[in-house]
Fold this sequence. Notes:
Number of strands: 2
Shape: elongated
Mean pLDDT: 85
Largest sheet: 2 strands, parallel
Low-confidence stretches: 233-251
Number of helices: 11
Order of helices and strands: HHHHHHHHHHHEE
Strand content: under 5%
Structural class: mainly alpha
Amino acid sequence: MRTERPQVKQERAVRTRLAILQAAATVFEEHGYEAAKLSDIVNIAKVTKGALYFHFDSKDDLAQAVVNAQNQGQPRALPQSHKVQEFIDIGMIFSHQLRHDVLMRASARLTLDRPGRELDQAAPYTAWIELHTDVLVEAKRRGELLPDVDPVVPSRLIVGAYAGLNRMASTLGLDLDPQASELYSHVLPSMVVPALAIRLDTAPGRGARALYGPHGRHECRVGCPTGVPAGIPAGVPAVVESEGHGEPVSA
């Protein structure tokens, strides 16, 4: 009798774990932590409860894995000439992900909710603040920031504002991307040297452009201005709405 190779078993385990995470994200996003049922998660993932408990010890453990996904496996943005543009891109890419990725949306909801369980809700905030601060420290070293700007201050402000904007947008049924765009447009003049501030791209859709290039062209099923259905010919450009927000800054 042939036995399954270790590599094949490992790959199957990785796929099963991801399927469970995606299913959990769907349920947590729709119902929140308290109302989420493991039976719904295993049904969506098409796995047994035994498989779920092989990968996750409990509902808390599964929820924590969804929360942690917010800072794991972030997509690689295109390099930029200015670190401040990379600072902007961190948030705009996150906004883009929230539109496309149920795992990001569920993670954000669990981070904002108060489930009454021992979830580490501080970790995503800490990780985002540290990431923003590191980028701004380098931006200040390059002379991109005004002399009196402490990189930690705008980093905390942006991360905190994103949390509030995301909750407001979800409650009011608004698109987060334009709200994030306005946030940067109002914050940047107080932290960036004027000659650079007018050149930065903060327009809606910046997350897609930071990931996929000037046109932000990508397969999309959720109605992005720059998204296209699968199978569209490569020569068809996507619409870029950047008027009034500065020009994209490329490498």
